[in-house]
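ok, trying the design again with the full structure, not the truncated one.
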């Protein structure tokens, strides 16, 4: 979740002065992290790509009015989270399969997508299958959590966001972040124990 605020500020200033290449540099700097957030919340690569594209379109339209009350990355990630929420609810209303992944793909420049999981060559095929089954069980349990709890888990444990970053991105108080995360962990334990029975 961390970015170079000085570089972002310079790029924003250049964009405000008419340099479109500065916006492309912002896209390059933030697209991967935005995609990881959207994919973590939606679990679908096409939906995540759509959300990131929509987010960049909104940012492009509003960037000249950006005052810098928060960092660019926090402002942008808040947009990504909000658009992901909208997409998630849109999918649910239409009965689309819901899923959340803990192994969100990342972009390697312009190269193809790569999975963040790295297989341990020391594990047997049986152990790899068990691990995959565990990840799927965990993803299904997270998917069943209420939206706010799911977002807290993804931002903290997948994106490694600090509590302060989470508060800004979600637009809630720091104490609410901590409470929501504690409730999310407890709810996840309960869901996993229900599945295990």
């Amino acid at each position: 979740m961390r970015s170079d605020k000085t570089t972002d500020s310079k790029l924003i200033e250049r964009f405000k002065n008419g340099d479109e290449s500065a916006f492309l540099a912002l896209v390059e700097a933030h697209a991967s992290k935005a995609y990881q957030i959207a994919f973590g919340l939606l679990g679908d690569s096409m939906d995540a790509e759509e959300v990131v594209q929509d987010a960049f379109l909104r940012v492009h339209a509003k960037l000249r009015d950006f005052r810098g009350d928060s960092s660019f990355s926090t402002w942008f990630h808040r947009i990504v989270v909000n658009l992901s929420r909208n997409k998630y609810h849109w999918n649910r209303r239409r009965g689309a399969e819901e899923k959340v992944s803990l192994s969100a793909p990342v972009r390697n420049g312009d190269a193809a997508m790569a999975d963040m999981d790295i297989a341990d060559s020391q594990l047997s095929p049986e152990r790899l299958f068990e691990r995959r089954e565990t990840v799927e069980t965990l993803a299904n349990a997270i998917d069943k959590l209420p939206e706010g709890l799911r977002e807290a888990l993804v931002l903290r444990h997948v994106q490694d966001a600090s509590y302060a970053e989470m508060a800004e991105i979600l637009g809630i108080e720091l104490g609410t972040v901590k409470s929501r995360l504690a409730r999310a962990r407890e709810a996840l334990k309960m869901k996993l124990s229900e599945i295990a029975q």
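Keeping the full-length input from now on. Residues 69 and 78 are 13 Å apart (CA to CA).
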